[in-house]
Amino acid sequence: MGQKLKIAGWISVGALAGVLTTVSLQTVARGAMTPLPLEEIQQLSAVFGLIKTDYVEPVDDKKLITDAISGMVASLDPHSQYFDKKSFKEFREGTSGRFVGVGIEITQEDGLIKIVSPIEGSPAFRAGLKTNDLITKIDDTAVKGLSLNDAVKRMRGEPNTKVTLTIFRKDESRTFPVTITREEIKTQSVKGKVVEPGYAWIRLSQFQERTVDDFVRKVEEVYRQEPNLKGLVLDLRNDPGGLLDAAVAISAAFLPEDVTVVSTDGQLAESKATFKASPEFYLRRSGQGDPLKRLPAALKRVPLVVLVNEGSASASEIVAGALQDHKRATIMGSQTFGKGSVQTVRPLGPDTGIKLTTARYYTPSGKSIQAKGIVPDVMVDETAEGDLFASLRMREADLEKHLSSGQGEEIKDAAREKAREEARKRLEEEAKKPIAERRLPEFGTDKDFQLAQALNQLKGQTVVASKTLTERKEEPKEN
User: Fold this and answer.
1) If you average pLDDT over residues 161-178, what whole number do you get?
2) What is the pTM of this model?
């Protein structure tokens, strides 16, 4: 990691349920504090007293204070969060890339829990849960009104215990229960293969502790099979993020040494940092060997296409933005999620803490990722028939209280509301089709339309650009 960012631990970016969120682990609190607003503190004390004396039934002091802290932090933006003893323990376990749960990436929508995507190979994946499924109940508890953190707590548990999720699948207009056995999630974050002579596909599903080593091994395997590689597709679709150092390393695998990969900026001096494509910015421990030195030199020059979509967030957006700004790759697919903020975890004691948004990410050219995402060089639909439902998909800019990009006035995209209405009508028609006809093809197969267009791009052949996708502008933030 960069020496300019004085932190103990590491930074991760992304959002998983089981769950990882964008975070930098810090042990030093801010030195200078502004004076407390005494009048407001007195009001808080008065409300505390009224609840204690006048509420219909007794309320525990600790619960009142904990809920006040939680509400104060949660009101800032969707990614700031208070950790009680249990959630802090779960968070620290989750940041290792290993956790006990069902293995789904989630967000919130209309008070329900929405599945961004099941983690490949996880219990949820094997149970057939799909992107855009809505979770309405966890065991016997309705999720309406639950915070994202509370929902995660209920889906976590001990290995080999069961949890029943009630799923509403919009495109089939049905609700059904799914019982899943929890297990330790050890996701394989790198997949890849030679798809045809001279061309390979490598997919990163997350940025974990072992992602860089796995990536290097996969590249070595590809080059053993195809020494004269003519083109490579780096697939970051539905990659929710993960470790920042892994994102910097993957970028460095393709970029010249010492060029800027990403920068951060916030109020704190240590939040103002620049990460470059050099070992000191991505090796986690001094004296650690650099796995990138094993990569073939040809990888720096091989023609490259990066595939992204609305599920590509944070660390994957950092990689796509760096490769795009340095003109090292052609970015194809649809506009990314737009998760471009840094969260710092500050312990409040031995077993509690807060995760607080402290900075924004910027691409090498200085563009903010936050609430904007990465706009592909070539928009490509998911299927040959189009990407009819892209306007319905959740992105950072759709989240309540989302942080703005900080770069200019936010623009209301009136055309998008019209597109949403049209997409809703198409969805109703699509729901009438047999299920087999509605299922999107698996990434990396011969039916993967976007992969086919990426290969056409690498070969200099005609690419079928999107018929429906347009750039989504950042929408106004309501204060």
Assistant:
1) 93
2) 0.71
